Amino acid sequence: MRRLWSHHDVAQSVGEKLGRRSLLLGSLPGIEAAQTSAMKAVRNLVVVLGDQLDVQASALAGFDPTLDVVWMAEVAEESTHVWSAKQRIVMFLAAMRHFADELRTQGYPLLYVALADADNRGTLALQLQHALTQLQPERIVMTAPGDWRVLQQLRAVATAQHLPLELRDDTHFFSTVREFAAHAKGRTQLRLEYWYRELRQKHGILMNGQAPLGGQWNFDADNRASFGKGGPSKVPPPLRFAPDAITQEVIELVNARFADHPGSLATFGWPVTRAQAQQALHAFITQRLPHFGQYQDAMWTDEAWLYHSHLSAALNLKLLAPRVVVQAAEAAYHAGQAPLPAVEGFIRQILGWREYVRGIYWTQMPGYGERNALDAQQELPAWYWTGNTDMACLKQAISQTLEHGYAHHIQRLMVTGLYALLLGVKPHAVHAWYLSVYVDAVEWVELPNTLGMSQFADGGLMASKPYVASGNYIQRMSNYCRGCRFNPLQSTGAKACPFTTLYWDFLLRHAPSLQANPRMTMQLKSLGRLDEPTRAAITRQAAALRSSPSERG
């Protein structure tokens, strides 16, 4: 079985590569005591996290292989601080191991700690502390992480070891957090649209001078089509990658080590290398982008992939650069290969939402994760971890999620997220589920999308309204309701769709706080047409849903 480099391997390789120069590795295995006294100290220990897999990362700028060492570690805590699904664990570990091989091939001295190593201490903090004790570097260098928790842990280690920690900007993004903070300063409301326009102008993307191509900034009105009764046609098969020896070893490890974690690895086929990510980008641009805009909100039974890009995991682990992705989409438009509404809608997800949610996260942490503006206190239903529910739409979205580690943005926002919002699930529980089950889940992007966009737990900081709808929305945008035992048009009675019941109940419960929101005017007017007996019946049925053992989880 293939084995990743241990401490012994690092010492041996570095000695081979650097000749006279040796690393101060203390009494690590494979280094004789006579060598230790002659070894030189390490200048920089360069920390590379599992979502920083980019040889162009700022942490590696100025790297000197005769002075510096890269440090990477697989630790159990990163798969257990939330109950991570197997697909997500494999995505991170397989990508890390492939990136480690890339670094070695390019001559980077690398200390890589594998999950099964005998001296693995289980957490990033403890593992880094051990490495610092052994290597005694002059400083720690890293690209700013995407997770507040990780940043605080590693800062604490550096402080305890009396070592400087040099945090460098994450150049993967179009903007810095400082730029977003400057944009946000003095604004009474933060809205994606204005930040998106600012970035479009600054970077000259889809622009005609200072004006947007096509004469408008977004084409939302053109990008909300459903498939109709006939369903999607000629959907290209997804580009999936058969696990190589490295990935297969990770799959076996995860099936053994995390056997009780949710999900299945039978279908794992995500890109875990830079080359695979480039292939996935090419496949999307040529095969799916032309229809992406029109059908980006549509859903269909047993169609997991449709016209979406499936690039978010590669982007979030830094296997793909967003500039490369945006340039490819823009080039497709100029070459006449994709219409402007599709290209603009896709670019807005990259240049708009990714940059916006990152700014929200880093300017609002650490308190953002605890917000609960709607005072939601319900537990997450247990079937979110299994998909065992009679509601066809939720069964489809959750089963697909557990099988592939993936669901597209409307399945997340308007199916799984919407139900949790209407039911009144604790926002932090919803956040933990999303962070657990999706292969693209890194906290900087997942938390604002969940708490702000999906659950409205920040009270409107990120989004201008709670995204609530009845079962009729799901019926309009999918075929999920066909054959489902619930009727999306009914709010009470044995056949009432739980989404519809809970939708009206949500409006009833939160009407006083929503009346000042102009974007809720039409929905509250519809609520006003319900007579008192109907309201009372909805309230009773919603209460019964919340008290049901299947809902309590």
Describe the structure.
- Strand 4 (139-143), helix 6 and strand 5 form a beta-alpha-beta unit.
- Helix 4 packs antiparallel against helix 9, helix 15 (409-423) packs across helix 19 (498-514) and helix 16 (427-437) packs across helix 17.
- This protein has helices at 7-18, 33-36, 77-80, 86-105, 124-135, 148-160, 177-184, 192-203, 245-257, 274-295, 312-316, 322-334, 340-364, 392-404, 409-423, 427-437, 443-454, 471-477, 498-514, 521-528, 532-547, 549-552, and strands spanning 44-47, 69-73, 110-113, 139-143, 165-168, 207-208, 211-212.
- The model is unreliable at 1-39 (pLDDT under 50).
- It is built from 22 helices and seven strands.
- The strands form two sheets. A five-stranded parallel β-sheet has the order 3-2-1-4-5, sandwiched between helices. A two-stranded antiparallel sheet has the order 6-7.
- The radius of gyration is 25 Å and the shape is globular.
- The protein is mainly α and 553 residues long.
- The protein has three domains: 7-168, HUPs (Rossmann fold); 177-364, Serine Threonine Protein Phosphatase 5, Tetratricopeptide repeat; 382-552, DNA Cyclobutane Dipyrimidine Photolyase, subunit A, domain 3 (Orthogonal Bundle).
- The longest helix is centred in the middle third of the chain and has 25 residues, at 340-364.
- The chain is 48% helix and 5% strand.
- The two termini are 41 Å apart.
